[in-house]
Design a protein that fits this description.
By secondary structure, the protein is mainly α. It has two domains: 78 residues, no CATH class; 72 residues, no CATH class. It is 45% helix and 6% strand. The chain is built from five helices and two strands; from the N terminus they run H-E-E-H-H-H-H. The chain has a two-stranded antiparallel sheet with strand order 1-2. Helix 3 runs antiparallel to helix 4. It is elongated and about 75 Å long. The termini are close together.
Length: 177
């Protein structure tokens, strides 16, 4: 972590003076894991949070799927309090459920690609039938084997990053070491 920190007022000055960056943002580097209680359906859950500048998510290129981003009244000192909750584990979803959701999305995309690819391959193989010697153009084992391998690799490609991400605390990911 940098040994140099800055004040919020410096960030405002940096924004005005900057000629190299389109936009600048900030977050509380030395935060003590502010604790909040989420109350709603089910059991109350303790959440952790960090103070960020109003444009923090915009600079990172993150747009809320539902709701809105921070507004000006929420970005002034002692202004209206606000929070943005992430989906998944921050709203009580278990790490296993997060992984399952990511893998199911990955498999849906991969399955669509396999079906489209199999149909296209079948058509091309039928057109190339006269160029093949000793091999069936529409060999079922080849099509099934490739579909299986592609789905297996896609499943792993979805599961492994999802497993790693579900073990990472989002607040820790913001810390620079």
């Amino acid at each position: 972590m940098s040994s140099v920190t800055s004040r919020a007022s410096n960030l405002l000055d940096y924004r005005v003076m900057s000629q190299s960056f389109e936009e600048m943002t900030g977050y509380m580097a030395f935060f003590g894991y502010e604790s909040y209680i989420l109350i709603g359906d089910g059991q109350p859950e303790r959440l952790v949070g960090v103070g960020v500048a109003r444009n923090f998510l915009e600079v990172l290129g993150v747009q809320p799927l539902l709701g809105r981003n921070f507004v000006e009244e929420e970005s002034v000192w002692d202004g209206r309090p606000a929070a943005i909750l992430t989906h998944g584990m921050a709203l009580g979803e278990s790490a296993a459920a997060v992984r399952m959701r990511v893998v199911s999305r990955t498999m849906t995309l991969a399955g669509t690609g396999v079906v489209i690819g199999a149909v296209a391959s079948f058509i091309v193989a039928c057109l190339m039938r006269s160029m093949l010697f000793g091999v069936e153009a529409t060999d079922a084992m080849t099509f099934e084997g490739m579909a299986f391998v592609l789905m297996l690799v896609s499943g792993l490609a979805g599961y492994l990053p999802a497993r790693r991400a579900s073990r990472t605390n989002p607040i820790d990911a913001l810390r620079v070491t």
